[in-house]
Amino acid sequence: MDAPVIKTEKLSKRFGDFVAVNEISFEVAAGEIFGFLGANGAGKTTAMRMLCGLSIPTSGAASIAGFDVYKQTEKIKRNIGYMSQKFSLYEDLTVLENINFFGGIYGLTNSQLREKSEQLVTKLGLQKESKKLVGELPLGWKQKLAFSVAILHEPKIVFLDEPTGGVDPVTRRQFWDLIYDASDKGITIFVTTHYMDEAEYCNRVSMMVDGSIKVLDSPANLKKQFSANSMDEVFYELARGAKRSDN
Amino acid sequence: MRTIRFLLQKEFKQIFRNKALLPLLFVLPIVQLIILPLAADYEIKNISVAIVDHDHSMYSQQLISKIGSSGYFKLAGYETSYANADKLIENDKADLILEIPTGFEKNLVRENQQQVFIAVNAINGVKASLGSAYLNNILMDYNSDLRLQWIRPERYNPAPVIEITSSNWFNPFMNYKFFMVPGILAVLITMIGSYMCALNIVKEKEVGTIEQINVTPIRKIHFILGKLIPFWLIGIFVFTFGLFVIARFIYGIIPLGNILLLYGFLSIYLIALLGFGLLISTYSETQQQAMSIAFFFVMIFMLMSGLFTSIDSMPEWAKTIARCNPVTYFIDVMRMIVLKGSGFKDIRTHFIIITLFAAGINGWAVLNYKKTN
Hints:
heterodimer; A: alpha/beta; Rossmann fold; four-stranded antiparallel beta sheet; 37% helix; B: alpha/beta; abc type-2 transporter like fold; 2 domains; four-stranded mixed beta sheet; 65% helix; 6% strand; elongated
């Protein structure tokens, strides 16, 4: 295994009395596709926000791409891509304008921007739509575009927070093709999802229950450990004991 | 610098694509500048006066026609009794009652003195006091006319010897619009500055795009500049249009003072106001919240700025609030430069204070704006 690009040590986040994330420790190797699973309210998004430098941890340690999550959040931001649960490209800008804007603020040169946006538009088959406002595109296309924009600046790690929520199975499949492409280029993928078939695509997955990581292994090993046929069963087995949930 | 260019491009595209925002930015202020000065008229005209003339004499008729021809009064009715006239006041048809007693003419001629009675509806205090003052003036004038008619010319003029003549500086015809229009323009600019900037930033919070921005290496000062500069330019544009098109061609106001000085002040003032909008945005999560907070402050800013009422006549504590109100200084400077032609020396204090405002509010807002929480 390569040197870890994500490394956490008893990382915690408290909001008042509420412990959203409770001493999680794990490592993710460079180039890995890491599935970060857990029920709603388990603390996945909070944990991910700390790793992205959007939220300062209450205690514990973590380094992302070799940078400290307390002191070097801005350096972390140079080296990561992020796609949040909420769609967060500008709906009132066109496809090309979004690509140019996000590429531009990551410091891509004009020629890079031109080249990259052409590549991207061709790859996603958006040639006809490139001058349309993003708000007019169907959700599946938006999500693929958002992912492509998140890795436009070739970050070391990309964080995906439920990237395929509400997307049809075919588009989800295409989305994962994009993820594999990115992974082949050496980008580490850190992804949360509620779809257990997607969990099977990951090299390793962790399961979060009530703010703590309960298990962490490859999908095959997890299924063996819980003598389950699918990741679905593993998830049920673990999530059943959860005290926190949506309701 | 390149980052700011990308941010500005994005902002301008978004602003000019927003079909709901554009009229708010460009049309509404202009319409308001055309309508509001008409409403904010200090002059009291059309005071309805009910007359109860018990005398029906030549002199009482003379007095009544003098009142009618003054231009300030309109006759709400001739009544036969005070009680009837009182009904007119109760029904809000009259503001004043002038009662002329029986024997008005006789007493005037024989005894050289007579009294009339004025009753005033004081619900609208300004109208009441101005109305009765006007009427008093007319009566005094009528009085001295009579004295001059009756008294034989003597060596000494029996009429009052000290007569006051006054001349109105800076606004010789006492045109209230000259006074109101620059002030209203200042308030409109204030509203654009504080509302639009706050709403724009909070909208990004609501939609969630700010999260995407926060996870990029954009420095917060760049992001803030990207938000402030477009609205700064729009503020300058609307001001220019208001001053050189609306104020000039509709109201005939031509600034007397140095235009550069005026724009210098405007520039700093807009920075202060946009900083205020930014500050609001850092404390609100939704556009509704931002709107409510901005509305609350803009109300105070407007009413305590000396736009409608003189700050000098406010109680001491209210004066303190007015002094902490940036709009006060802008309205003052507008009136001073536009109407009076004041130079830098006259408004130096204003400049210093508004610069402190700009620095203070923006400093606070920048500190409070967090990419990470």
